[in-house]
């Protein structure tokens, strides 16, 4: 295969390019990106990037590689600010407006787009946070001392609340479900994480929806489903993301909340693979279809998809125990595995009292997930146990031994 085209110039796309060269691929590589920016790292955008800086200091985005490395060392042709608009799998061409780009191997890494609240998009103080441009807008509002309302107590919303509170600003978080992070970690540990908001002075209001947002004289009035209203200068909508697949509609690829792939990240269409937040693939380790929006899997999938796309005869499946982290106030939340609801057991710490908490998730007779708050030294051990796999009883025994050693 002579031509590799990678659509989506972010984490998964960049890792695809790097892995192709590392595997010895000598053909042409074109990296196509909708944004004007060089590939940059997103997690800092809702964390360090929002921190207050001493006067005169300018916030900087974390660009993964300078342009010279991308062009000269990796030998990639960069087409930035050029959203792909279509795919013709018969002619093996990616369309970018009128332009057509031929590929022998294609990696789709177009990620996801933040969901907005319908009807509020035109309001000056209402933002989502997915891109660097979004982060600049949110940062500027925080610099101006914005009273902040965050809609959605997921990771990104909660991190923005943390950032605003660190600056001493008034923050309200509105969450429709009974606790933060319910979809990602379940209700028991979501409620444990809610304590972090309460203890840090964020006004967390769960079980409430947003009816509408009214913009009056530069102030946004967020009207909630119980009839109450909160005034804000900045509203950040953090209600999830949608896989960026519109450009693939009608291409013949199977789209179902993401680009559907097999174990090898192969779409079933000759030469076409997908990676990162946009990919829904079959994870053999859990024998189920998954679409993750996590940094680690996006990076790993980018590399696997490129190798498999270029060397299909030696294609390897991508299997993983999902992992993500999130930083709230001065705490780090980490989660591995899947948030099974069969049983959740807190094996270390009391969420109301202790900084460090460890909880395990049971699915049938085995360990399926683990969550830690400030448990950096143990979380990867649980990831290893889930990978093995490990029975629930053995996992509890392991937790007991850890507790005894720590004590
Ligand atoms: P993306 O990073 O979404 O990149 C896709 C790229 O494709 C974008 O640049 C987009 O502009 C481009 N694109 C879209 N459509 C087209 C098109 N038609 N043509 C060309 N280009 C296109 N994960 C964690 O595990 N821990 C964290 O703490 C964490 N924090 C995060 C904080 C924020 C604010 C955000 C937004 C995400 C965070 N994540 C975190 C998730 C992590 O950043 C993502 O999983 C990762 O960025 C996914 O990489 P990706 O390359 O698949 O997609």
**What is the average per-residue confidence, as pLDDT, rounded to a whole number?**
97
Question: How far apart, in Å, are the first and last alpha carbons?
Answer: 58 Å
CATH architecture of the largest domain: 3-Layer(bba) Sandwich
CATH homologous superfamily of the largest domain - what is it?
FAD/NAD(P)-binding domain
Q: Please work out how many helical segments DSSP would assign.
A: 8
Shape: globular
Strand content: 25-35%
- Give the uncertain stretches in residue-range form: none
CATH level 3 topology of the largest domain: FAD/NAD(P)-binding domain
The helix content, as a percent range, equals: 10-25%
Radius of gyration: 22 Å
Pairing-aware structural class of the strands and helices?
A: alpha/beta
Domain tally: 3
What is the count of β-strands?
A: 26
The distinct bound ligands, ions and cofactors come out as: flavin-adenine dinucleotide
CATH C-level name of the largest domain: Alpha Beta
Largest sheet: 5 strands, parallel
Strand order of the largest sheet: 3-2-1-7-19
Brief characterization of the structure:
With 407 residues, the chain is an alpha/beta fold. The protein folds into three domains: 3-113 and 242-314, 3-Layer(bba) Sandwich (FAD/NAD(P)-binding domain), CATH 3.50.50.60; 116-239, FAD/NAD(P)-binding domain (3-Layer(bba) Sandwich); 330-406, Enolase-like, domain 1 (2-Layer Sandwich).
């Amino acid at each position: 295969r002579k031509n590799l085209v990678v659509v989506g110039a972010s984490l998964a796309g960049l890792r695809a390019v790097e892995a192709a060269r590392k595997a010895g691929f000598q053909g042409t590589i074109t990296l196509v990106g909708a944004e004007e920016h060089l590939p940059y790292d997103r997690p800092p955008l809702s964390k360090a990037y929002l921190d207050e800086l001493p006067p005169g200091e300018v916030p900087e985005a974390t660009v993964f590689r300078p342009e010279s490395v991308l062009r000269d060392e990796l030998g990639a042709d960069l087409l930035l600010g050029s959203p792909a608009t279509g795919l013709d799998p018969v002619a093996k061409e990616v369309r970018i407006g009128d332009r057509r780009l031929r590929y022998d191997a294609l990696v789709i890494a177009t990620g996801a787009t933040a969901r907005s609240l319908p009807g509020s998009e035109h309001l000056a103080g209402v933002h989502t946070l997915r891109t660097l441009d979004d982060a600049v807008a949110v940062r500027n509002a925080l610099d101006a001392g914005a009273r902040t309302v965050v809609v959605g107590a997921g990771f990104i919303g909660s991190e923005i609340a943390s950032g605003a509170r660190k600056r001493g600003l008034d923050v309200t978080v509105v969450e429709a479900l009974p606790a933060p992070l319910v979809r990602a970690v379940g209700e028991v540990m979501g409620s444990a994480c809610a304590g972090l908001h309460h203890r840090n002075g964020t006004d967390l209001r769960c079980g409430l929806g947003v009816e509408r947002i009214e913009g009056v004289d530069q102030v946004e009035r967020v009207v909630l489903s119980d009839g109450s209203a909160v005034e804000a200068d900045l509203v950040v909508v953090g209600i999830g993301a949608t896989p960026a697949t519109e450009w693939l509609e009608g291409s013949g690829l199977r789209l179902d909340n993401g680009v559907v792939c097999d174990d090898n990240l192969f779409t079933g269409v000759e030469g076409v693979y997908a990676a990162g937040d946009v990919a829904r693939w079959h994870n053999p380790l859990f024998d189920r279809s998954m679409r993750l929006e996590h940094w680690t899997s996006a990076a790993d999938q980018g590399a696997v998809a490129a190798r498999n796309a270029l060397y299909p005869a030696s294609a390897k499946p991508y299997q993983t125990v999902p992992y993500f982290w999130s930083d709230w106030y001065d705490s780090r939340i980490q989660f591995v595995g899947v948030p099974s609801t069969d049983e959740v057991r807190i094996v270390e710490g009391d969420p109301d009292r202790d900084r460090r908490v460890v909880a395990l998730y049971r699915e049938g007779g085995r360990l399926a997930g683990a969550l830690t708050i400030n448990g950096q030294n143990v979380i990867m051990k649980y990831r290893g146990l889930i990978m093995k796999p490990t029975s629930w009883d053995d996992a509890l025994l392991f937790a007991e031994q850890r507790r005894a050693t720590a004590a």
